[in-house]
Each structure stands twice: as C-alpha cells, then as structure tokens.
Give the backbone structure.
Amino acid sequence: MPACFHCGLTVAGTGRFCCAGCEAVAGAIAAAGLGAYYETRTTPALRPEPLPEFHAPKDLTESALILERVRCAACLWLIEQVLRRAPGVKRADMNYATRRAQVAWDPERTSLGEIIGALRAVGYDACPYDPQRQRELERTEQRAALGRLFVAAFGAMQVMMYAFPAYVDEVSAEAMHVMRWASLLITLPVLFFSCVPFFSGALVELRQRRLGLDTPIALGMAFGFGASAWATLTGSGAVYFDSISMLAFLLLGARYLEAEARRRAARALDPLLKIVSSSGILAGQTISIAPGERIPADGVVTQGVSCADESLLTGESRPVAKRAGDEVAGGSVNLEQPLVMRVTRAGADTRAASIARLAERGTASKPRLVDAAERVARHLTWIVVLTAAVSAILLGDPWVAVAVLVVACPCALALAAPIVLTRASGALLAHGVLLTRGRALDVLTRVSDVVLDKTGTLTTGQLRLGTIRLFGDVDETAMLELARSLEASSRHPVARAFPGGATHSVVTPRNVPGQGIEGTVRGRRVRIGSEAFCQALCGVPPAGPAHPNFDGSFVFLADEKGWLAAFELEDTLRPAAAAMVAGLRRAGIAVHLASGDRPEVAAALARELWIESCAGAMSPEDKYRYLEGLQREGHVVAMVGDGLNDAPVLARADVSFAMGGGAEAAQLKADVVLMNDSLESIGTALRIARRAMRLVRQNIGWALAYNALALPLAATGFIGPWEAALAMGASSLTVLLNALRPLEQPEWKASTSSFPSPSASYS
Amino acid sequence: MESLYLLVPVSVGLVFLTGWLFWRALHSGQFDDLERPAQQVLDDDH
C-alpha cells in the first residue's frame, strides 16, 4: 500500500494522500512554491487536525507564537517563508532555541487568526505565546533529553565493565565472547535510542548537502558500531562498544547542559513576553491590580497607594512608590495595596514588549569573532571527513578513520560561543542593560574612550534649586514663597525647581515665553525670569556685592521698586556619575565630556568629576566631528547619550549607550540601552562583556589548539578509537562547562572592585 | 570462569530493569524540577 505523500500514513484507496487534510496541506505548500520542504525534511509531517475556534483581539498587531511540531531546520525555513509571504505580515522572526516566532502584521490586511490559519495550512500548530503551554513543551523535551542521557550513561558504565577485564588481563576466548555479546546488547539502546538526535541531525545535513557538526559523529558511531557488531558476530577483530557508548554519554551530557542553559536564558524573557500576548486588555480600560499581581499593561494609577517592583524592566530591585497620577509599567509587580489603573498602552505597545523584542533581536547579531569561528567550524568538518578517508586508505586500517571522525571536535567552535552570548545578554538584562545588537559585545571589550553627553546623561535633566542670593534686606523664605506662587501657574522646566505650589494668590499671572512670569501679589507687581525681563520692570541693573558670579543658570525675582533675589538653578547630577567616571579612569579608559551647554558650565562639571577633556557649546555636528577625530587617531569610542537628540552622534560611535529610562526603548538608536538610567550600568556592561568575550576567546582558543593537536595524532594512528572518544567527549564537555562559568563575580567580591581593572581585561 | 555465564546475563537483565525503573521515575515527574525541591526543605513555611 502506498504511503501518504505528506504525513506518511498508509493510503487506503488510490491516490497519493491519506485524507483531504493532507492533500490540502501539500497543495498549499506546493502552491506557495515551497516544495523544497519535502526534499529537505527528515520526518514525515503530522496529520493536520481540524482548526479549533480561535478568538483574537481585533486591534492586536504583534504577537509571539509558540510553534509545535517543529522538527528540523527545514521546518524553520518553511515557517519563516510562509509567514513572510502571508499578506499583511510585516515581520516574522523565528527563534529555534525558544521555538517562538515573533510576528508583526498590519491589522487592516490580516489578523492573527488568518496567520495561524496560514501556518496550519502547511501543517504546523501555532498558538499565541502562553507560558503554560511553553512549559508543557519544555517539559516533554527535557524529559526526553534526560531519558536519552540516562540510557547512555548507564549503558556506557555497564559496557565499560565488560570491556575492562580485556584491557588489564588475559581473558579466555569464551568469556570474551559472552562479554562481547552482552556489550552489543547494551549498546543497542544507546545507539538506537540515545543517539537518535545525532543521526537525524546528520540526515538533515545530508539532505541539505552540507556538512555540519552531526555528520562526523554519526559516521564515526555508525561505522564503529557496524564493525564491532560484525566482529562480535564472526568472532574476529576488535570491538569498541565501550568507546561508542562513552562518546554518546559525554556528548549527550554536553548537549543536555547546553539545552538547559538555553532554556534558562529564554526563560528570562518569559514574563516580558507574557505581556505581549496578554490579550483582552485594551488601552483606555480601567483595571484593578491586587497586591502581588503582575501589572498586565502600561498605565496611570487612578486610585490607591502602593509600591511596585520594576526589576523586570529596570534591573532595580528596590520597590518604587506609586500613587494616583504615577505611571506604572506592564511587567512590574504591585507589592502592597490594591491599585486601580487606567491602561494607556497594552500588548505589543508596552515598554515590556519592546524590550522583549529588542532583546530577542539583539541575540541575532553575533560578534565578528563568533561569526569567524562558525565559518572555521564548517570548513573543519570537511577537513575531518577528508582526513579520515585519506589516512584510512594510506594506513590500511579502517579504525584510523573512526578515530579521526570521532576525535575532531568542531562543536567547541560552533556550540559554546552562542551559549555565552545568550547568557551574557540575559545577565545584562538582569542589571537593566538591554543589548540591542549582540555585535556590540565584542566592541565593548575594546573601548578606549568614553564620550559623555551632559544634560540627560551625567545629569538628570531636571532642574533643582541651588544657592539663593538676596538683594537688600529681604527674607529668604518670603522670597521663595513668592517665587513658588508665581511659578505654580507655569509648566516650564524651570517651574519644577520651585515645587510646593502657591502660598499667595497671584492676580493676573502673565507668562512671557522665553522670558519669565509676571503677576500681582498683594497689590505688588512682581516678575520672575531672566535678568533682562526683570530689569524691564525695576529699571536698574542688578548691582552691589550680591551680584552673583555667573557660572550657573540664574532666575531673578524683582518688583517695581528693585531687585529682590536671584535663584541659582542646578541640573541634578546623577548619583553614580562621579563613581562611574572614576571607575572608567581606573579601568584605563579616557573620559570626555561633550556638552551643548555653555563652556563654563561644562568646564565646571568636568572639574567636579575629574574629567580631563571637556568641550562645551557643541552642536550635534561638532560632537560628530569630535568622535570622528578620536576615531581617526585609532581610539575605539563609546558614546553615552540620551538616545533621542543625539542619535546621529550615537550612530557614529563604535558602540553607543542610551539612557532609556524615560523613552520608548525601541526609539533609542543605540547598541546598549540603560533602562534604569543608572550610570553604574556602564561599568557592569563593560565588565560582563569582557568576561563573556574572554570565555568565548578561551573556548575558541581551546578548540583550535585541541583540534590542531588531536587530528594529526589520530590520522597517524597514535590515537585509537578508544582514546579518541574520551578526548572528544572530554573536550566538548570542557568547552561547555567553561561557557557556563559565572559571568559575574559574587556580590561580596564585586563590591571591592566594581570596575574591570586594565590588568585583568584581556586573556 | 563458569560463573560468568550466569553473572553476565544477570547483569544485562539488571541494566534493563534499571532502565525501566528510571523510565517510570522520569515520566512520573521525578526529574522535572531539580532545584526547587532541594531548597524547599530549608523553607520554614513548609
């Protein structure tokens, strides 16, 4: 009986398909011109099931989809193609590690239901991301992996027992025969159950006509087992069942750890993604949040007083107080009292959603070094297979070929780096540092100069009242009250330096843009604002010893009789600014200040923070040229800015940081977004990047050295299959365990050295 | 040496028995969470 073309089930009647469903699916695939899927797939597809009812909110435009039945790389390609060709789909990115597809679409032209329908048409079940379902999938996967690992481990142990006597002593021929049969019996499940991933992987590579990591391993194992089984059946020759099962155990162990690390890294994004797909909540709704509950969307508190844990978004674990009028971010947790909030942004528009998007995209671009290593790994597999063939022919011993195939360890080159990168971006996110381009990790380790912007970067950009100078015999408190009363009607940033509201009633307040405010208080006309504005009222220039030394920004207060007071306004320095600059200098990084503010102000700030090179009154073009100049001298420049006004300058820098506290992370054109606005995070980012790149370099160095040494030894017959299996397994485990080393010092240690010291920076 | 003819098959049998036991444990959820239960013992509320 013929098998169904699509799902492989037996076809009852005539024809190529078992059911109408399969025929429709195959038709849809062929009609889309994606027939290549059938050539590259490794397993027959599953039979499509009837479409369940699915209700999606109408105005949803982006969603994370979990995909089931994804089996191999060909599936991945097919899904991405189908999604990208579907009408109205703006973007589709598939992540194999997390089995998630990020899809954005135009709500005018299509809907989530239609997109899921399109995926079902080619035979994949998709559902909006649901943590419950994701966990379910992960659990089955983890169980299967653990099962395979255990069978290989126990099998390897037992086979080793049978092999051991022959290595140390003379064993009688009959006893040997019995033990070989026992070994064969136990190696069977190891090979045909535990090693399935290697064989299916090799098959995919074969179908796609490329050589990957699995091909040499699968070849070596298959050949080793075949020859050993033949030797057992005929009672002649050597057997290497122990080597095969040990290799399987060590490799599966490495892969298990890898999968675990990947799952853990993916889980860090889970709560953020949950926000993206929290359907049912729409902007404009009013919802109440119980204490302990995660806030499902961005919004404004309308009732209640509580505090929220925003660590998911900012990495800051200290709770933030929330009262009516405060903004709350989706993804944070309400801690104390019930809150009522009005939703301003829901689903894919939330801050959490854009962070999740950027973080997933960030891992897609890899540092140059890793790209190069992956290319080398691809060439290495060719070299290995050719070496195996040539050396076996030259030496006339097929076991040499097995040794060569087994001993080569390209996985150290190709596998271990991505794990370090995923872990690094996860560790950074935990500190409120969002890496939007993985490529930047590499550059971060080479930074020699940091250029800082002033307003909004070193300072918060929020004005604060400094010293008050009084003219003549007036009371300071009275002057402050007067100033507050006048500024109470204003929305200008200057007004925020005078908080507290009006204590006097101001009659006919008049706001002169760019000048100041005039009003009548208790029958007295007063003005607050610039020097010229006040002078126009009182008639004389400010004089006397109270005339301030103008290196800050001043606001004046005067009435018709004369000058009353001058208020110095300071831009609040960010708390960690001084520590950050000192730390950067200790790490051997030159710090520059490029400010658009007046040169005197910039110079004063530079003196305060011990910044050696400083330039004031710089336009964005000046800053751009300044960066170019540094780069021409061979410096690797990191630029720190607010990410909105200085986007072109940030783009010019080798690596750019943006303060992302206020703005939408996606609008910030920077490689690294500091979501908690904490300058200390720059040090954290440099530290984690250096550590991560060091691990990557160590792994790549190890892999190159190991392969350069082991390959010739195996090809010349110095290393037999037994030693080859041990060396290869140990090598891939070493690399993997190295990749899993902590990226940060424990806290008690980190407190003594919060910045990387130049001596410990490279290895 | 004769004992080998008995002991080796017995050991093979034991391997498969252990494999079956592990299989059952695996699918009853024994290994699903390898971290939390270890810490749960230290938790006072439990």
